[in-house]
Amino acid sequence: MSPTSSGARWLPPEPLPAGESWRRSAKGLLVADGCVLLLHVCDPVEPQLGSWWELPGGGLEPGEDERDAVVREVREETGLRLDRDDVGTIAWTRHATFRWLGRRRWQRETVHLVALPATARERALDPTPEAPGALLAVAWQPLEALAGLRTYPLRLAEHVPALLAGRHVAEGLERWS
Predict the structure, then answer these.
(1) Best CA proximity match to 113, nearest among 173, 176, 37, 174
(2) What pTM was estimated for this model as a whole?
(3) Pure H helices in 18-114
């Protein structure tokens, strides 16, 4: 296992196909007043993949750590401005592979718990999506509604109670699409 910059450990994944490499990604599990902030997205290049709800977050830029990436990505994808101190330590480590914009992606992900006051749900959401047509909505979803949604990560509803209780979740490779 190899450590991340914050000390969390990765489960060993299966070998990647030749020519592929892991992309580092950080996501935020933003929770306020019994709700989770999610992005409703679809792939404009492969609409047959359908739509799903996912956590805000994305790839780390050069020189950026996971917390800085969460702050930047949340601002870009939702319009919410977080302080670096709002972003908790890594709560969930995982590997995933999925199709996005016409190609297979391989990603090492960290998910950080971001506990916000109830008033966060009153802030205006103003995303700046990177892929035209990909972002359908940004919405606060009640925790009890997660099980009825198609989500990325797939096991989001299952793991949220453990994450909110302060337990770390470590997963191997999820083949999402």
Answers:
(1) 37
(2) 0.88
(3) 66-78
